[in-house]
Amino acid sequence: MLSNPPLPGSESCPELMLFDLDGVLMDSLPAMRAAWEAVTAELGVPVPFAAYAQHLGRPFGDILALFDLGKGEEGGAGFAEAYESAAVRFAHLARPFPGVEQALQDIVAADCRLGVVTSKSAARAQPMLAVLGAPFAVLRTPDQGRGKPSPDTLLLALVEAATDPADALYVGDMPVDQEAAQRAGLRYAHAAWGYGAPTKPLPLILQEPSQLVDLARGLPSRGTA
Asked: What is the pLDDT of residue 4?
């Protein structure tokens, strides 16, 4: 593989490393599948999980709208509430990706703060953050502003953490993550162990969580393009 071109500002280590949750820190696909299949069966909604999974990274309400499952739609009334409850119930099926927990510890040891910007609700995200056991300085969700690909939640995270965009990095795995980072003026790195593919122009692509530690320490990236 060819070496990836350096990101603007990649010569300096970030003060704040922000992460998407699903597909970056947590392998939550089994939990999401169990919740989706339970709720669609209960409510008689003929939308397979594979169709839902194509839109991961967007706020849940936006995905429901794509399938005409918004509030008040026939067959969709209460869907969001039912899924929220099921997702919390099945959260135990989500697991950290191998190497993520150690990488987070090493990032903190390198004096880099951690944060999460996710399209999950806070109620669904918090049990997973508890599993990771890392000191996250900030958590931002669509409960607190427009979700990705809007830059709002990223910008709000920066405000809460009192951090300039030039001193932060966002790590995601879906095109909406990349778009949100670009619109927020943030450096972006793509987690290749996640659920999606990067878009052009290609960002820094990380093959394993240990490479996040290199970025936190300001070392030359081993990422690829």
From this structure: 38
Q: Which residue has 């122009």 as its token pair?
A: 201
Q: Write a three-state SS string for the chain.
A: CCECCCCCCCCCCCCEEEECCECCCEECHHHHHHHHHHHHHHHCCCCCHHHHHCCCCCCHHHHHHHCCCCCCCCCCCCHHHHHHHHHHHCHHHCEECCCHHHHHHHHHHCCCEEEEECCCCHHHHHHHHHHHCCCEEEEECHHHCCCCCCCHHHHHHHHHCCCCHHHEEEEECCHHHHHHHHHHCCEEEEECCCCCCCCCCCCEEECCCHHHHHHHCCCCCCCEC
Asked, for residue 58, whether it belongs to a domain, the answer is yes
Full residue range of the structural domain in which residue 128 is found:
16-27+96-216
Q: Does residue 44 sit in the same domain as residue 151?
A: no
Torsion on CA atoms 76, 143, 89, 47, rounded to nearest 10: 30
pLDDT, tens digit (0-9, with 9 covering 90-100), for 106-125: 999 999 999 999 999 998 99
Name residue, tokens 């839109």. 55
Burial class (CB in 10 A: 0-12, 13-18, 19+), 127: middle
Strand pairing of 204-206 and 187-191?
Answer: parallel
For the chain, the domain total comes to 2
pTM, to two decimals: 0.88
